[in-house]
Amino acid sequence: MKTKLMVVATVMALLLCGATMVAYAQGPGPQGKAFLGGPGHGHGFGFMARELNLTDAQKAQIKTIMQSNRASMKAVATQMAQNRAALLAATANGAYDPAKIQALAGQQAQLEAMMIVNRESVKHQIYTQVLTSDQQAKAEQLRTQEINRINERIQRMTNTTAAPPASNE
């Protein structure tokens, strides 16, 4: 049971794009478009709606779930922005106080964890309350593809950093 729940959470984590959730929580960006939701960004909510062939009723259900979680997401996003501003202020003009930076980094890590938990909760709700079994199977397939892409990138990074650059002397 726990394994299935973990798989569900992982699937939704990879499929519903965390950046889209943060952007949604922050509201419209420049020119009235949601941050990262404009043209050219293929892995947002629209991508999932197309890939999973969501019905209009399912899209409405998802919108309701997202709206019910928007306040908590926005609060955390606001705290994250304030923390980032504090970090920038703490390092202005080349200042470097390791203890202060460590404290701010710790706060940011806690906020990131809160955001991840919020996102995963929303994804779990969508997966269990909205998607059909066929859509869940498709989501699993997409999750596997994403894991493969991540593993390929890790492999490329490992190969790139393992070999020293050739000398041109």
Cα shape? flat
* Topology pattern, helix = H, strand = E: HHHHHH
Mean pLDDT: 79
Main beta sheet, described? none
CA distance, first residue to last residue: 60 Å
Secondary structure category? mainly alpha
Number of beta-strand segments: 0
Low-confidence stretches: 5-42
Number of helices: 6
* Rg (CA only): 19 Å
What is the helix fraction of residues, given as a range? over 70%
Number of domains: 1
Q: How much strand?
A: under 5%
Overview of this structure, please?
The chain has 169 residues and is an all-alpha fold. It has one domain. Helices cover 75% and strands 0% of the residues. It has 6 helices and no strands. The protein starts with a helix and ends in a 7-residue tail after the last helix.
